[in-house]
Amino acid sequence: MGEPNKIKLGISIGDINGIGCEVALKTFLDNRMLDFCTPIFYASNKTISEQKKRLGLEISFQGIPNAEKAHPGKINVCNVWKENPGIQFGEATEEGGKFAIKSLRAAVNALKKNEIDVLVTAPINKNNIQAEDFKFPGHTDFLAKELGGDSLMFMVSDDLRVGLLTDHVAVKNVANEITTKRVKDKVFTMMNSLKVDFGIRKPKIALLGINPHSGDNGTIGEEDEKIMKPAIASMFDDGHQVYGPYSADSFFGSGNHKNFDAVIAAYHDQGLIPFKTLAFGKGVNFTAGLSKVRTSPDHGTAYEIAGKGMADASSFTEAVFLALKVFKNREEYAELSKNPLKKHQLKKKTKAQ
Length: 353
Fold this sequence. Notes:
It contains eleven helices and twelve strands. It has helices at residues 20-27, 45-55, 94-112, 139-147, 174-177, 180-196, 223-237, 248-251, 268-279, 314-338, 340-352, and strands at 8-12, 38-43, 62-64, 76-79, 118-121, 149-156, 161-164, 204-208, 241-246, 262-265, 284-290, 293-297. It is an alpha/beta fold and 353 residues long.
């Protein structure tokens, strides 16, 4: 049966008509991945069999009724449904949304019950998932409700971390969503994540301005003067390494982001355009601030290439590795917090280095 204490990694398969199953299955084509975790797909034997057949993937799996029956050293498929949904690659169908929600709900329920340790979510379509019992703009909002905590959409790669003050909000509503409280809440959520999830003892964080040129001292909007600057000054005066607001147009191009452990952007495209330009295919969407670990690849359903066997699994693979890393870092942080002597020894070791 292999190692019983290996991390159990749950996978929600996303839209069956997109590339979610493809990138997830391709990640585990390399058997060495099974040395790091025990993967559990929340779907059905029929659906996964159909996906691998149509994609021409030579990969075996074990069907199980629940995560307790998962086999270490094997790919496991937890049977969530008995139906055989029709796969229409490249199409945004109602059925595709229905089964994406079924997979996600089953995986999240398992996570809440500690049947799995971490969750990696494959891409969904934010339109066809909408239903009477599911009215969320995406994974992040749903997970925040189910798992509790102050969630932060946090895009992560090896040398770049970008969080968002507002995520899936229409541009016309962004300024109204940003308050002093929100700025502080998101900064402290990021700061705690950098300490606990990434092992950075004294995080240094940059905030980008809301308006062009951070408002030019109020000439182009007053939000930066009235909200951003006072919030940043208050946190800085309290001893936190928080800086800004920086003009977003030149921040990444000048390489200024390299001077910080993480960056907070005011809205979705302000943060994700530079992130995906610099790290696309290697980036991970991590939901910081939750009681459980959830990651996702940095791309969407990619209907245009779905079913063609062309999808690159790199980002999904990185999402798996980050989920495992954060889980272990949280365990280590909890242990150090319980044992002051170990914490003191770690501090001495860090200083010596």
